[in-house]
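Researcher: Quick sanity check before group meeting.
Model: Go ahead. Protein one:
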Amino acid sequence: MIGVVCALAAEARPLARLAGASVSVSGMGGDAAAAAARALIDSGATALLSWGLAGALDPALAAGALFLPSCVMASGGAALDMAPAWHQRLRAALADQHPIARGTLLTSARALGSAAAKAAAFRDTGALAVDMECLPVAQVAAAHGLPFVAIKVIVDRAADDLPRAVAAAADAAGRLHLWRLLGALARSPADLAPLSRLALRYRAASRTLAAAARLGSLAPA
């Protein structure tokens, strides 16, 4: 059984009918993702997959781009490679549906919400994209001797500044609440324009996630 860790409930939705997988919505952040990964292993998972959205660091990556990381790292830390045979199988299967970007994924302990922060991370690490959950899941898999891969889809581009209202709208369980979003927008109305742009990016990313989920099986073999 594959244990799939997603930060947000919306990321997990396309996986509802995925065969041979147990999906856990961890909420945002590395500690929550690691706890979800350990719980999946306790429930019988024999492989772990980090699934969901990521932000672009490479300016060449557009919203909706499918990113299959070859390794994941923290800033200033060593990289952990994906399980090679599993990674290759997914790459071959997903390439029939969508162009794939490959390279290093950076896991950051904090959100990189500004274009300047993303540009600095790209310069300093060479990573193509960033998330907040993948590396802890990879570390749990490595500690248990289990194969690990990640499938990510780009939502915000490298040049996008993320509105603070988005972070305010998410709860600890990975659910987005409209009332929280409206309250944050009322406090910071300047976020409305970037939020509208992000909504367009999110629709493109959601279509790619749904297409990847239609693969039918994401199993290592």
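Researcher: Fine. The other one?
Model: Protein two, sequence then structure:
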Amino acid sequence: MNKQQNIRRIAGIAVLSALTIILTIVSNYIIIAGVSINLSLVPIVLAAIIYGPYAGFFVGLINGGFVMLSAQAFFAISPVGTVIVCLLKTSIAGLVSGYIYRLIVRFNEIVSTFVASLIVPVVNTGLFIIGSLIFFKGSFGSLISIFISLNFIIEFAINLLLAPAIIRIIKAVKK
């Protein structure tokens, strides 16, 4: 990788990191049926697809750090659990999305983009539910799982609807 490509890569990851921060903050104000919707998964997908799994991990880690800032209720129950869950759920989702994309893209770019886009909310929500049941035991963990199910459906639908736009962005960036 030459110096100019490296600078573009760093700048692209920085822009996606900034976008995930902005969307994380904005998402706190977009509430559907009592659940705030995490729009910031899209930059994680873009980072994972365009720049690779580690970029998806990094942007997911940035996202998790900012999600953690608004998780006061969770800190009251388990500070360590809150840090682990918030930082790992989106970063691992970005990492897995990037690897899945790389695995499937050889066969079909459109299918690989859709699968990578949909894997982020699946992994994110799955790890959040597992973390909630481990660290936030009792009725609070069960209540979280119910609300998260609705959140998952909405995030999944958003990523599904935005996947064609993601495909266009990827093609534009690759040119």
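Researcher: One line on it for the slide.
Model: DSSP finds seven helices and two strands in the chain.
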